[in-house]
Amino acid sequence: MRRNVFSDKIALERSLEDIPMKICLFIKDFAVGKKFLPDGRPTKSGAEIHGENHALQLIKLGHRVTIFTKKKFFFTAARENLNGIDLVRLHPPIRWLEIFLRLLTRHRDIDAFYIIGTPKFAVWAILFAKMFKKPVTLALTGKAEIFSVDNWRNKIFAKCTRYIATTKEIRDGFIKSGGIAPEKISILPHGIDTNKFPKSNPARRRELKIAYGIEPARKVLLFCARVVKDKGVDTLQDVWRILHKKFPDAILFVVGGGINELLDELRKTSAELDDSIKVIGEVDAPQEFYQMADVYIFPSRHEGLPTSLLEAMASGLPAVTSDIGGCEDVIENNFNGYRVDSEDAAAFAEKISILFNDDERRKIFGERAAELIRDTCDFSIVVPKLAEIIAR
After folding, report:
1. For residue 343, what are the contacts with CB-CB under 8 A and spacing of at least 6?
2. Predicted structure pTM score
3. Distance in angstroms (rounded) separating the CA atoms of residues 248 and 224
4. What is the CATH number of the domain that holds 357?
5. Fewest C-beta in 10 Å: which of 101, 129, 160, 324?
6. Is the pLDDT of residue 12 over 50?
7. Quick one: angle between helices 123-131 and 95-104, nearest 10?
8. Is 174 inside any structural domain?
């Protein structure tokens, strides 16, 4: 039976369904304005998406959520209501002062603080929470956010009440680099709404392939993530050159916005390989691509807990991923997918070939993947635990 890194018991100290909280969530940025940067990348980061999702889900549980973030543009309002979220944008260069003034006046009824990432201005919330004996939880969603106690800000970040790591690798980083006591740390995925990513089945896969002009017997490989170098797009192209020789009828779908130059490279590679790569670009709803594909590929070089991988697994897709933190938390070799070295295109191609050639293995791996994500990463599982941690 597969081990589950998200199954550590979280003691429930009180029933939060009966005690609504007023939560202040701190996050570095909250994208507004244009959807894409000049180079083609989407403006909204994964951390911002998680912050918004957590706020909305906590509100569904009956809590009140205020988000404090940076005011980056003159045209944005200093305060507004966003789908029930009280959004406050803090003015430079006096964010620290504004935080204290707001928490002493308009937002003096805050019960608990929740920080995503390590925004510099959030240290003032930690100091305020310590002064007034309120709980403060810090969550890291990416390996790059792991901090060492080497300056005054990081020393304050190391004084929170509780910590959330979305992966085992981040938990270990909290302990090793930040000197955080293990008992203060909970491993908790950021979560997804699995209802939005129903499991596919042969009939649905066939229907979608026909709709996209693909013979149902042709195999489809899916990459759904930002098209940037760190996601292993160069490795992806090398993998596909190998696979195209072995499976000339197969199709690779690339779904996601990213660097325009890299998207053009993929189109050029497709032209060299019989137009076998379909570059879709950014989409708001990738569900059809998850349901149409036979195998998911994720050759990223470093990750937190990749949302697109959780979505693919929830949809019943077996995956071949890089052997890195985050992926190792949900993919077990030869159980629900495979992990290989992020730079080893031949290894990726070998494991994908095994899955392309074995219908029963793909089915079993996909079912196991979907079960794991529904049991551990659905918002209905994650968010009540999140609320309990924040309340401590």
Report:
1. 235
2. 0.92
3. 21
4. 3.40.50.2000
5. 101
6. no
7. 30
8. yes
